[in-house]
Design brief:
With 267 residues, the chain is an all-alpha fold. Among the domains are: 76 residues, Orthogonal Bundle (Helix Hairpins); 45 residues. Helix content is 72%, strand content 0%. The protein starts with 5 loop residues before the first helix and ends with a helix.
Length: 267
Amino acid sequence: MKKKAEIEKLIALMERLRGDNGCPWDREQTLKTLVPFIIEEAYEVIAAIDEGSDESILEELGDLLFQIIFICQIKKEDKRFGLAEVIDRSHEKMVRRHPHVFGNAKADTPDEVLAHWAEIKKEEKKARKSLSTLSAMTGGLSDVPDALPALLRAHKVSQKAAKAGFDWKETRDVLEKLREEVEEFCAATEKNDKTNMEEELGDILFTLVNVSRFIEVNPEDALRKTIGKFIGRFHLMEKAIEKKGGSISTTRMEELEEAWQESKKLE
């Protein structure tokens, strides 16, 4: 185990990078410009976890931590807060949200823990005065962040709506809704109505998220695995075609389909 001062070494590094004689690129960054890097690093942590490599997880966690240090340094320069305040706030919140560990509440199962968690979050929300432009919006879905990736946001909205009581009774009911949305999308494509096609496609995607909730599959995980599977098959197909002296761009669709089916057998 490395000594506690290691985090201070990283903080000092960031201070130097942002200092007068530091890095021009680092000095000009703002919270807004860091957003895509934060998202990218978070997803790279997920990819490393999926890969199962301790070395990759170690490296990607470091990259994500660096982004947190970066944000804290910018806020420290603005005299708003630093990493110490972030850690204190997180510690206070986690203690408050675990009353079954640090208080007198009782929770013997994960479901009971989640019930406590949800109730405490609700109380926190009531006590917090939001300065957001969306502060006028209230209700059961108002606290789902806009900035979440669309698929994750759809999943959270679906969960909250269902918890509030707005839900189908069985999986077959939501599947029937999916069939209905697909039919409406097909009707829009026949009319070549671009605006309606976009709307109906969105309805299909949101309904599929609800399907995933009913069958207890995380849609983000499912899609990520499918993308990985597609990339693997595509690579095998490319190699098979290249062995014959061809390329994807010059090969007829019938041959591509045949190579694709062969790639599926090699998985």
